[in-house]
Amino acid sequence: MRLLIWYWGRRGAGAQRVVTLGRALRRRGDVAVALSVSRQMDLLAEVEALGLPTDIVETYTSGAGFLLGLPRVPGLARRLARQAREFRADAVLSVMTHLWTPLVTPALRRAGIPYVPIVHDALPHPGDPALLWDWRLDRELDAASGAIVHSAEVGRLLRARRPGLPVETLSLGTDLDAAALAPASGAAKEGGFLLFGRLRAYKGLDLLRDAWPAVLERHPGARLRVVGEGDAEGLAPGLSALPGVRVETRWVAEAEIPALAASADALVLPYREASQSSVVPLAFALGVPVVATAVGALAEQVADGVNGLVVPPEPAALAAAMARMADPAERARLAAGARASGAALVDWDARAAELLGVLRRLGVRDGG
């Protein structure tokens, strides 16, 4: 199979996915891989180090850059289609959507090039900007010959939206491999609970705030660290003033994420809504158990009582689960379960083999 992997985003899980997936596919003898990435990507040096045929395109780093760059998009769309034709790609795989993606995909359809997006969300998250959200997703799906999802819940929603579109599920592993996670695995623990990532309304910081006093009643020394980009105080007024709580409002760089996750005794995901979370497999790969609310696909990812605890999205239930997780013996048992679950999630050779099987089930031919 000849596969062109496309991601024009700047940072986040999509960039790391290009690196890890590209590295794993390069080790195989039954697939040829080319890449199309942004010059503004934070992990560009790591992408170039893969030694794969790569087209590096100028995108943008700001809102003004997005608008000023729009006149270039038709040319970039033709450039992507031309790269796919010259590489003789059997499919173009988009690992994560980008604001320009819906403007580019029609060119792939017109050129007759099979296009397969990995769709992470079938609905906008509550509280997130939703302007043109449906239009953007529909444009992608109009051009797609099939789609890949990471959970049964997102698959169900996508099939309801597009009954005739082939949809297959690819298991969600970490976006890092075992070698990248090894240094973090041996790091000293700061302890306590951790919530990290983009701080948005659907992440349920207000639920966490309301649950925390009850956790402290049972475990007065409990600690909670909240780290991420966003307005934590606006989302949950008073959270940062609670005893044992430390809020760090900042972007978490990719290189910092493994050590940050490994430093915690447990991760907490008090979400009000979710598709699936890339935080969960990372935590398990590091042997860190998770407390999560039973929304979206989180209950698919976290096995209640095995590698974490899953509860309804309401403060009393969340507090009870966090108090249970704060018990050292219970936490040790769940950490062992997390470590066992995580062993398979860092195997990117297995992820690559699974991806190729999914693409074949979606009808991507091996043209050679």
From TrEMBL:
Superkingdom assignment: Bacteria
* Gene Ontology molecular-function annotations: glycosyltransferase activity
Tell me where in this chain the Glycosyltransferase subfamily 4-like N-terminal domain is found: 16-177
Q: Which Gene3D superfamilies match?
A: Glycogen Phosphorylase B (3.40.50.2000)
Show the PANTHER family listed in the entry: SULFOQUINOVOSYL TRANSFERASE SQD2 (PTHR45947)
Q: What is this protein called?
A: Glycosyltransferase
Question: What organism is the protein native to?
Answer: Roseomonas acroporae
Q: What does the organism's lineage look like at the top?
A: Bacteria, Pseudomonadati, Pseudomonadota, Alphaproteobacteria, Acetobacterales
